[in-house]
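Q: Here's a chain of 278 amino acids. Please give me its 3D structure as C-alpha cells.
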Amino acid sequence: MIQDISPMKLRNEYRPEKACGPKDTVICVQGGSLLVREGVAEICFPLREELPADASCRYLFSIDERDFYLAESVAELPWYHYLSLRDIRYKLKGPRFLMYAAYTAFHLAVWYRDNKFCGRCGSSTVHSENERALKCPDCGHVIYPRLMPAVIVGVINGDSILMTKYANRPMSFYALIAGFTEIGETLEECVAREVMEEAGLKVKNLRYYKSQPWGSVQDLLMGFYCDVDGDTEIKLERNELKEGRWVPRAEIEGQTDDLSLTNEMMMVFKEGREPGVR
C-alpha cells in the first residue's frame, strides 16, 4: 500500500527548528494540484533553490533524512507544471515514498488552508511553537490536523466477493464498498449501513483487516471483511454506483497499481488469505 515504504520511515512530528535549505524538497500546492517536473517518468518535486526567493516554505515532515516543506501559491516554474494527485498517481509511477509524501503533504496543505482563521472567533490563527497544531491568539482555540474515519468493505458470498464501480468517477476498474463514518456511529455500524445503502445487502461476521492513511480526502481508511447475511440479490444505489456484482476469486483483476487498501483486500481474497470467522 502507499504507506509501505520500509525500510524508509516517515517522521511526521512537527519540528519548529527546521529551516528550508537550498537542496531541500518543496511540495508546492495550488488548489488540488502539486508542482512536479515535466517530461520525466517518476515524481520529481522542485528544490528550494529552484523557487522564487520570496517563497514561504513551511516544514512538513521527513522521510529518513530527507526533509519536505510546503509552499503555497507558487507559479509554474520552467520545466515544472501542476498535476492533480490522480494524475500524479497514474501518470508518474513512483517512487512509492514520494507518492506517499505527495498524499501526506496534500493532507496537511488542505488542513493549513482551511484553518487560517479561528472557527470560534474568526481571528487569524498562528502555528503552535511545540506541536502540529494551529492556535488562536485571541480565544485560545487549538486546531489539530483533521482525520476522517472511513471504511472499506469486502462483502463475501461463499467463494465470491462484491465488487463495484463508482457512478460519477473516471475509474474503469472495480473497487469495494466504501464510505465515511457518521457522527455517533461505530465502525461496525458504518460497515452495515454502507453495504445496505449502496448494495441493499445485510452482513454478518465482521472482521477487521488493516488500516491506511489516504491524504487526498483526509481519510483514515479501515478495512473489514464480512459475510452476506441472507438475500444475495444486489440492489444498487444508482447515485453512488453504476455496477456491482459477485466476482469469484479466480476472476478478480487488480487495479493498475498496488497503492490502495481496496486493491490489497481484493487480491488477499483472490489468494484465499482473508481473515476467517472467529
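Q: Can you summarize the key feature?
A: The first strand starts at residue 10 and ends at 11.
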